[in-house]
Amino acid sequence: MTGRYQAYPEYKPSPIDWLEEIPSQWKTTRLKYLGNAIIGLTYSPDEVVEKESEDATLVLRSSNVQNGKISLLDNVYVSKDIPEKLRTKKDDILICSRNGSRALIGKNARIDDSSTNMTFGAFMTIFRSKYNEYLSHVFNSKLFEYQSGSFLTSTINQLTTGNLNSFEIPFPPEAELEPINNFLNHETAKIDKLISKQEKLIELLKEKRQAVISHAVTKGLRPDSEMKDSGIEWLGQVPKHWTVKKIKHFGAVIGGYAFKSSDFTDNGYPVIKISNVSHLEIDWSDRSYLPPDFAQRHKEYIAPKGSLVFAMTRPVISGGIKVFRMKDDSNPLINQRVGFINIENEDISFFILQSSLSSAFKAQFINNMTVTNQPNISGEGIGDICIAVPPQNELIEINLALKNIGSLYSKLIENCIEQIGLMKERKTALISAAVTGKIDVRNFKEEVNE
C-alpha cells in the first residue's frame, strides 16, 4: 500500500508478533493504557417500553451500527435507572462484542451528536478515550480485525472487555495523531462518497424493480386487458378475468413452535429462527440445530420445499418484508416468531413471493401488523392479505417475465455491490497502512479542486 505514498525514513522491529516493523519513533501499547472498555446495560423484557413512554431511554444494539455509523432506524427503549458511565458520550466507540453471527463481532461506530446520552445493551461495549478519533481508525483496520478474530473460537463467540483491553497496537507520538487523522478523514470521506453513490444507485434499481413487479402482479403484462375494481383499497383496478383471493385461500399460515433455548444443540436437525429470515432469502450465517428426534415430535412445524417463510416479529425492514421461499429439501423446523405457509403449487408460491414486493402487498402487510413493545404480525394477519391471481396459463407467463426481470436487476445490483466491496477493501487497506506506519502522511495536504 505504499504506491503514491512514501514510507517513514526509519523503522525498528515491532514487538507485536503479527507486525514486523513500526516507524522508529512509534511505540506499542495496550488499549487499557489509552482508555476504558465498558460493557453495556442488562435489562429485562419487562423494562422495554414505547418511545413515547416517560423516562424512555434508547438502547443501542448491534442493529444500530450500520456501515461504520450509528443508525437509529431499528430502536428499542427501556425505562430503567441508567448509571452515568453507561450513557453514551460524543466520540465513544460503540462495539458489537457479542452476537449470534461471528461476522458481526467487532463492528463499531463512533457516537455522534445524534446518539449521545443514550445507553447500550449488554452485547455491546463502549471504548472511551481521549484518543478516539485516532482509535476509531484503528478499530476499522486489519490489525483490529486480526486481534478480535484471535479471541473467537468454536466455543467462545464474544469479545470481552478483558480481550479488548489487552489488544496491543502500534501508537505514534501524539504530535503525529492530528495529521494522520486529517489524512484518513479526508481520504476515507472520498471513498465513502463513492460508496454512497453506488448505494443510491442500488436503491434506485430496487425502486424500479419494485415498480415493474408491482405492475406485473396487479395489472399483468397485457396493456389491452379490460380492468375491474378489485374491491380492495390497496389493489385498485385489476384485470377483469383475474380473481382476488386472500393468502389463506392457499393454506394456513402456521406460527413456529417455542423451542426452549436449552433444546438447541451444536449440530443435528436444522431450525429456522427469526435471525435466519432475511428479505427474499434465508440467512444461514447464524445456524441453529435441534436433536434429530424433534423433527418427528414436532413435524407439524416443518417447512417443506415451496413453503413461504415469514418473519413475524419486526417483519419489515427497509428493503421490504422479511419473507423467503424454501428452495431445497432441508425441511427445517420453524421456531417461534417465524411463520410459514406450505404451498405445493410452485407457480403460486413463486407468484405470491413476487407479490410481496408490490406496494399493494406491503401496504396490507403493514396495516395488519400490531405494535406493542415491538412490531408483530400474526398468521391471521398474513392470511388476510389479498392478491390478484391470473389464470394458470397467464400466471406461468407472468412468472417467466418476473424471473427475467429479477435476473436483470439482480445482475445490475450485484455489479454495484461488487464495486462497493472493492472500495471498502481499498478503504480498509488505506487505514491499515496509516495506523501501522507503513505510509508516512505527516506532510499530507488536501489537494485543491479535487
From TrEMBL:
<dbReference type="InterPro" id="IPR052021">
    <property type="entry name" value="Type-I_RS_S_subunit"/>
</dbReference>
<protein>
    <submittedName>
        <fullName>Restriction enzyme, Res subunit</fullName>
    </submittedName>
</protein>
<feature type="domain" description="Type I restriction modification DNA specificity">
    <location>
        <begin position="239"/>
        <end position="419"/>
    </location>
</feature>
<dbReference type="InterPro" id="IPR000055">
    <property type="entry name" value="Restrct_endonuc_typeI_TRD"/>
</dbReference>
<comment type="similarity">
    <text>Belongs to the type-I restriction system S methylase family.</text>
</comment>
<keyword id="KW-0680">Restriction system</keyword>
<keyword id="KW-0238">DNA-binding</keyword>
<feature type="domain" description="Type I restriction modification DNA specificity">
    <location>
        <begin position="23"/>
        <end position="189"/>
    </location>
</feature>
<dbReference type="Pfam" id="PF01420">
    <property type="entry name" value="Methylase_S"/>
</dbReference>
<dbReference type="InterPro" id="IPR044946">
    <property type="entry name" value="Restrct_endonuc_typeI_TRD_sf"/>
</dbReference>
<dbReference type="GO" id="GO:0009307">
    <property type="term" value="P:DNA restriction-modification system"/>
</dbReference>
<dbReference type="GO" id="GO:0003677">
    <property type="term" value="F:DNA binding"/>
</dbReference>
